[in-house]
């Protein structure tokens, strides 16, 4: 797997910082996401629960870009947690939204623990030809921010 660049680390930290804005809830993770253009320009940000308690971070960020004619094929979405593949409250997963958006590159800090649903975001994105970069050494911050959820894990 490709190693993350310094810019990848910077924007993943930004996504983690954004996740702190997510209203704490035992029902979902606090996640942040940033879409960054090919020139290193931030295009949109989002965090889980920003406009609706059921909306995920990636969904919030992509909604701000939808229908505006942006070519996202050279952009990257940075997210603090692996994009979901199964959700109870919404018909379309963040993984599907990312693949439909035209984004070809995803950088994340932490894979989703087996807590709410069996998440296969990384595998699904890779099988769709999307580059995925993980920065697991930034995962401790994500675990700390989500201690209210992950603390309930039995594994
Ligand atoms: Zn999601």
From TrEMBL:
Molecular function in Gene Ontology: catalytic activity
Domain CMP/dCMP-type deaminase: 6-132
One Pfam short name: dCMP_cyt_deam_1
Superkingdom as given in the UniProt entry: Bacteria
InterPro entries the record matches: CMP_dCMP_dom, Cytidine_deaminase-like
PROSITE patterns, per database record: CYT_DCMP_DEAMINASES_2
Entry protein name: Diaminohydroxyphosphoribosylaminopyrimidine deaminase
Species of provenance: Actinoplanes regularis
């Amino acid at each position: 797997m490709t190693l993350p660049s310094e810019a990848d680390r910077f924007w993943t930290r930004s996504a983690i910082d954004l996740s702190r804005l997510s209203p704490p809830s035992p029902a979902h993770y606090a996640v942040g996401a940033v879409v960054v253009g090919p020139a290193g320009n931030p295009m949109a940000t989002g965090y889980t629960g920003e406009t609706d308690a059921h909306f995920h971070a990636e969904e919030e960020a992509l909604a701000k870009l939808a229908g505006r004619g942006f070519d996202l094929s050279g952009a990257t979405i940075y997210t603090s947690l692996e994009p979901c593949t199964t959700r109870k409250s919404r018909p379309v997963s963040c993984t599907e939204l990312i693949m439909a958006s035209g984004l070809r590159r995803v950088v994340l800090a932490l894979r989703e623990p087996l807590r709410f649903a069996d998440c296969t975001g990384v595998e699904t994105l890779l099988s769709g030809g999307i580059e995925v970069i993980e920065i697991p050494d930034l995962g401790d911050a994500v675990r700390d921010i989500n201690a209210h959820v992950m603390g309930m894990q039995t594994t």
